[in-house]
């Protein structure tokens, strides 16, 4: 990879395993920036807990070759039999199995185990047998033909195929079928990480089949990804910036940069890493409730690949390893999510970079406003505060080793309607002012939005499945748009208005939040309300995972309810 053009910035760097030096004013191609050696003992942290998860994966896969579900990783389908179709998202488990078979890793008792190789191949062959005739696959409901599941599983299977060094006509035919389906189909909603994964999967299939059509298709998907990068460095995820999913996109672009040798990716990757660096927290946790999708995803391999060139990427890779040591990493531990990053961590270990650009002064103050993303970042050596204006003033604040999160108001009216202040909404009125004393005052005003919590019922599932079987299979995009609007993107304003003012004061250790709540509808009466610390209103598969911060208590605002109903307005002042 050619040298990146980078400019040194003053960043807080988690951990002290490497010397901290002040970098030069800039690093340019052909120059010699100050580099430092990374502590090689840190590398092993990429494998912490990985083997336990591989064992879990081996328990998830159907290992009986006499059953038609041999190689299926969806235990709800093949074992518990509570699902009537397999979700192919689970089939990305073939990559971790291929990696532990092929790679001589420290403590890896599965290296060279033929049974592991057989199960990885069985997983790929199950994908080939269980997909639809056009090469598509399902994830949440039958005949969904889900792009997300298709690309997650394809890129993993193609890489596993390369690692296992096989020549299997059945799998080669499946790769071609899936690749052609990807070329001919899009998805509703703008999820850049899916298209980055599609580009990576298509490129790997092109390598396997030596197919120029698929190479061109991969590069066209890369063009789409780059077109969806905002000038601030972030990639669009449902109309906004989500630092968690951003790491997935960066991971794919870094892999594609290495595979294609395409230098036009250098600058977009640099800007993406620089943006992401702002959301590495002092406790080494990353991202969270303030992103457009509220995720804490972290794919480390791409940053590890870039750590030798980019200060920001090195900071993020070292931050991930610090989070592993501290236990502040988000735990994606349910059956659907745990395999997402499993292979990625092994790949990061394999691509360990022994040196990195020197870190810079962690104490200098940074105040950064990303108006397009609707994110404001304040950081110095003592504290780190992040505010999302597009999500109604969500605040995440770190001070003296502790974290406080304000994920917004939750209000329930007497008729049972629940509304929240955190919906992603660009129509809110936002004002950011810097005061002479260094205080930053951020004001966000707009209505609350209703939210619903729905679970599946026998009737709903019957209607959905029957409808998809009878007619929905021929209008998958319309069905997806309907479900997206109902569960993810839909916004219905409610006649309660919130004006939230957030004061970030350098001289004070706290963040002051003033909420002015007004009932604008004559028939609205509040029954209860609170400020939540870890809730997510819109459906996102990868949210709601465990971190220590989710155990923070909610703030009950019941004492303000009577006055609000009587006077139709109330002001609540709190400090984080």
Describe this structure in words.
The chain is of the alpha+beta class. The protein folds into 2 domains: 323 residues, Chondroitin AC/alginate lyase (Glycosyltransferase); 174 residues, no CATH class. Helix content is 35%, strand content 18%. The chain contains 16 helices and 20 strands. The strands form 5 sheets. Strands 12, 13, 14, 15, 16, 17, 18, 19 and 20 form a 9-stranded antiparallel sheet that branches. It has a 5-stranded antiparallel sheet with strand order 7-8-9-10-11, with no helix packed on it. A hairpin with a 6-residue loop joins strand 16 and strand 17. Helix 4 packs antiparallel against helix 5 and helix 9 packs antiparallel against helix 10. The longest helix is centred in the N-terminal third of the chain and has 18 residues. It is globular, with a radius of gyration of 24 Å.
């Amino acid at each position: 990879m050619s040298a990146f053009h980078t400019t040194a910035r003053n960043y807080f760097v988690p951990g002290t395993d490497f010397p901290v030096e002040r970098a030069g004013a800039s690093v340019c191609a052909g120059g010699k920036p100050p580099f430092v050696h990374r502590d090689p003992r840190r590398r092993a942290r990429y494998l912490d807990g990985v083997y336990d998860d591989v064992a879990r994966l081996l328990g998830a896969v159907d290992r009986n070759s006499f059953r038609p579900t041999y190689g299926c990783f969806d235990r709800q389908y093949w074992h518990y039999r509570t699902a009537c179709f397999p979700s192919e998202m689970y089939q990305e488990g073939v990559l971790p199995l291929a990696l532990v078979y092929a790679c001589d890793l420290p403590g890896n008792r599965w290296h060279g185990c033929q049974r592991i190789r057989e199960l990885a191949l069985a997983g790929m062959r199950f994908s080939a047998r269980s997909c639809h005739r056009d090469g598509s696959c399902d994830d949440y409901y039958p005949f969904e033909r889900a792009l997300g599941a298709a690309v997650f599983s394809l890129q993993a299977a193609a890489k596993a195929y390369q690692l296992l060094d096989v020549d299997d006509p059945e799998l080669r035919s499946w790769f071609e079928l899936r690749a052609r389906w990807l070329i001919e189909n899009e998805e509703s909603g703008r999820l850049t990480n899916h298209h980055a994964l599609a580009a990576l999967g298509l490129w790997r299939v092109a390598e396997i089949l030596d197919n120029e059509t698929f190479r061109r298709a991969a590069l066209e998907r890369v063009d789409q990804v780059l077109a969806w990068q905002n000038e601030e460095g972030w990639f669009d995820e449902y109309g906004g910036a989500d630092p968690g999913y951003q790491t997935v996109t960066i991971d794919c672009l870094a892999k594609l940069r290495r595979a294609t040798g395409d230098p036009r990716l250098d600058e977009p990757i640099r800007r993406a890493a620089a943006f992401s660096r702002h959301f590495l927290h002092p406790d080494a946790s990353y991202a969270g409730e303030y992103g457009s999708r509220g995720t804490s995803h972290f794919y480390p391999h791409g940053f590890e690949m870039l750590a030798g060139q980019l200060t920001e990427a090195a900071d993020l890779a070292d931050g991930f390893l610090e989070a592993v040591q501290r236990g502040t990493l988000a735990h994606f531990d349910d059956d659907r999510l745990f395999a997402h990053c499993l292979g990625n961590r092994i790949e990061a270990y394999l691509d360990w970079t022994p040196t990195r650009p020197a870190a810079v002064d962690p104490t200098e103050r940074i105040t950064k406003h990303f108006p397009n993303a609707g994110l404001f970042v304040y950081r110095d050596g003592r504290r780190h505060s992040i505010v999302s204006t597009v999500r109604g003033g969500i605040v995440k604040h770190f001070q003296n080793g502790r974290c406080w999160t304000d994920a917004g108001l939750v209000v329930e009216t007497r008729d049972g309607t629940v509304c929240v202040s955190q919906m992603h909404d660009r129509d809110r009125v936002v004002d950011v002012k810097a005061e002479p004393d260094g205080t930053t005052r951020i004001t966000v005003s707009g209505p609350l939005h209703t939210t619903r919590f729905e679970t599946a019922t026998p009737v709903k599932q019957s209607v959905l499945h029957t409808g998809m079987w009878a007619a929905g299979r021929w209008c998958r995009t319309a069905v997806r748009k309907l479900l997206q609007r109902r569960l993810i993107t839909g916004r219905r304003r409610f006649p309660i208005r919130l004006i939230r003012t957030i004061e970030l004061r350098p001289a004070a250790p706290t963040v002051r939040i003033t909420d002015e709540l007004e009932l604008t509808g004559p028939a609205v009466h509040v029954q209860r309300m609170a400020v939540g610390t870890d809730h997510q209103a819109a459906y996102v598969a990868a949210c709601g995972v465990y971190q220590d911060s989710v155990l923070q208590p909610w703030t009950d605002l019941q004492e303000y309810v009577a006055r609000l109903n009587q006077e139709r307005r109330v002001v609540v002042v709190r400090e984080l």
